[in-house]
Structures are given as C-alpha cells and as structure tokens.
Design goal:
CATH class of the largest domain: Mainly Alpha
CATH topology of the largest domain: Helix Hairpins
Strand content: 15-25%
Mean pLDDT: 87
Order of helices and strands: EHHEEEHEHEE
Distance between the termini: 26 Å
Number of helices: 4
Number of domains: 2
CATH superfamily of the largest domain: Transcription elongation factor, GreA/GreB, N-terminal domain
Strand order of the largest sheet: 5-4-3-7-6
Radius of gyration: 21 Å
Structural class: alpha/beta
CATH architecture of the largest domain: Orthogonal Bundle
Largest sheet: 5 strands, mixed
Length: 163
C-alpha cells in the first residue's frame, strides 16, 4: 500500500465509517430500492419525478458505498510513527505565519476526521500539510498559495490529537 493510498484515521472515525457503510449498504439501499419499485408501479417513467429522484439518490448512495469500501480497505488506525515534536498525520500543529505573526492550529488528518474534529483539519497532501510534514518545533516551511505567492510558516507546537 502506498502512502498516497493509505489514510490515517482515529479508531472513532474508522468505527463511524464502518457504521455508515453498514447503514448505506443495508437499510438505506433497501429503502431506496423500495422507492424505485413503488415509482415504477405508477407507470410512465419519463415524467415520473419520484422515480428519477430515487434513481439519482441510488447512484449517490452506491458511489459513497464504493468510496467507503476503498477508504476502509486502505485505512490505518492511529498515526504513523514519528518523534513527539515532529509534524505527522494525526498530530495537532500550531504554526505562525512568519509575514503576519498570526497563528493557526489544525489537525493534520483526513477529511473523514473533519466532520467530528474539534479543530480545523488539513490534509497531509494539501500545500500546507505537505510543507510541514516531517518538520519539528522551531522549523520553518514554505509553500505555494493558490495565487502563486509563497507563504512561510514556523512550527510553534506539535501534539498528539486527543479527539
């Protein structure tokens, strides 16, 4: 498994995703199928809004099921091994924007953590996440902004994520 494919998740996030997969592939799938069958029985499918809405929902549900299966197959529980003061997935990082003096604290983690995290979440593959991964407290890192300009941050603190 390559690093790009694996996603680090907390045990809680992994469990939530498993529960979502079970719900979507069981009860939700069956409920959507019933709605499609009921709409078919109404007759003309060309102008049947309920049928088309249910088919669209079915497509979205099946896409999310595939996404969840892939994510769970490639998930790693916990965080990769790293020094206590080293920026890595699963760590809460505070950076200072060198040019402005402002600080920002975020969890370096997956978007699946974002919905339930107590802090902002940045992906390890985002420009900022990529720049700071592997840095230690006191180090500086520079990354490119969307407008092409460069931004430099200094690592202020690094801590394990407590959920």
């Amino acid at each position: 498994m390559t690093t790009e494919q694996e996603t680090w998740l907390t045990q809680e996030a992994y469990n939530r995703l498993e529960d979502e997969l079970t719900e979507r592939s069981g009860p939700r799938r069956a409920e959507i199928t019933k709605r499609i069958e009921a709409a078919r029985e109404e007759g003309d499918l060309k102008e049947n809004g309920g049928y088309h809405a249910a088919k669209e929902e079915q497509g979205k549900n099946e896409a999310r099921i595939r996404q969840l299966k892939h994510l769970l197959e490639n998930a790693r529980i916990g965080a990769p091994a790293s020094a206590e003061d080293e920026v890595a997935p699963g760590k809460v990082v505070t950076v200072r924007f060198v040019d402005f003096g402002d600080e920002e604290t975020f969890l370096l983690g997956s978007r699946e953590e974002a919905a339930h995290a107590s802090v902002e979440v940045y992906s390890p593959t985002s420009p900022l996440g990529s720049a700071v991964t592997g840095c230690r407290v006191g180090d500086t890192a520079t990354y490119a902004l969307a407008n092409g300009k460069q931004m430099t941050v200094q690592i202020v603190t690094v801590a394990a994520y407590g959920g």
